[in-house]
Amino acid sequence: MYQDHIIIDGLQYCYWDRAHFERLRAGGVTAVHATLVYHELARETLTRFSEWNRRFEQDADLIRPVMGYQDIRAAKEEGRVGVFFGAQNCSPIEDDIGLIEIMRKLGLLIMQLSYNNQSLLATGCYEERDPGITRFGRQAIAEMNRVGMIVDMSHSAERSTLEAIEISSRPICISHANPARAHEALRNKSDTVLKALADSGGLLGFSLYPFHLPDKSKCTLERFCRMVADTVEFMGIEHVGIGSDLCLNQPQSVLEWMRNGRWSKAMDYGEGSSQDAGWPAQPSWFRDGGDFNNLYRGLKAVGFNETDTAAILGGNWLRFLQSGLGPA
Question: Distance between CA 314 and CA 316 in Å, rounded?
Fold first, then answer.
């Protein structure tokens, strides 16, 4: 029955080539949220769109663009993988609120308000102090709500995240993170945040990035799925999905760009330790985007029925996107 379900990965930043697209399709993935940019400004973001347009042209038999939730259903019917875009920082809009609507029309469906550091909109989770959403941030959230661009607070600090949930007139997402109760990490989220997210109709995408997992790369499938089950008990089945945070086949230079951008001359090691300088090894049961079937079996094994398993693996993301992407 796995192949009958819509499967959505709420975040990847892999080396995007035909081999990866083939693996996603063979693994039954219906759609994937692809990180378009991290620290790129508006002009550079246009280049990223151009690069993806070429991929859509060259690999049209495997992938298709997603501009709205209906394109995900179409991808399922066509046997292709739908790709929808997000920014892991607010850098594409620079200091111009008008660029929010422009980027949305080009296909940027999701935008994080900050990436680890303080931004013009919000505070990142690595900052020592969190003053919350800025004046620009409040207006940017309202504009994102208006045009149907989803607010993502995956890399943001606690107060900023809680304020974004409160300020936004539409539910937000944390596309790729885990509960801090399962594993303490700067990027994982407290019960306070998760409760507020669920109460407001938002969505959490569970991360498969090893630094965010209990036991990191040694995390077992059962332990991951029990973490999902415990979180469902706390948040409710309709508020969880998967956001694997897969970063496969990328060179070290990409990792350094993610962590350092242009802001630092010193190496930022991400999780605060030089031991975390490189890419971590994926758990053996989730090595790439073709392993969602393992999640399906693991969730069933810990007691989820078919309906709830399908919701976690894609149904909840589809419903969330349906409600969040149209203009207000």
Answer: 6
Cα separation of 274 and 192, whole Å?
30
CA angle 108, 288, 106 (to 5 degrees): 10
Digit-coded pLDDT (tens) for 122-158: 999 999 999 999 999 999 999 999 999 999 999 999 9
Closest residue by Cα to residue 240 from 258, 253, 228: 228
Q: What integer best gives the mean pLDDT of the chain? A: 96
Assessment of whether the complete model's pTM goes beyond 0.90? yes
Read off the tokens for 8.
């959505």
Q: What angle do CA 311, 209, 59 make, to 5 degrees?
A: 70
Answer for the pair 256, 276: CB distance below 8 angstroms, yes or no.
no
Determine contact, residues 76/19, Cβ cutoff 8 Å.
no
Q: What pLDDT, in 10s, does the model give residues 53-78?
A: 999 999 999 999 999 999 999 999 99
Tokens 């994102």 identify what position?
A: 144
Please list, in sequence order, all residues whose beta carbon lies within 8 angstroms of the beta carbon of residue 285, skipping any fewer than 6 positions away.
Answer: 220, 221, 291, 294, 298
Range in 71-75, 225-229, 269-273, 322-326 with the lowest mean pLDDT: 269-273
Residues 6+ apart with CB under 8 A from 282: 208, 210, 217, 246, 248, 288
**Rounded Cα distance, 239 and 47, in Å:** 34
Joined tokens for residue 145: 């709500």
Cα separation, 9 vs 208, in Å, equals: 11
CB 137 within 8 A of CB 113: yes
Residues facing 165 on adjacent strands: none
Domains of the chain with CATH codes: 2-89+172-324 (3.20.20.140)
Using CA atoms, how far apart are residues 178 and 194, in angstroms rounded to an integer? 10
Q: What angle do CA 137, 181, 150 make, to 5 degrees?
A: 30
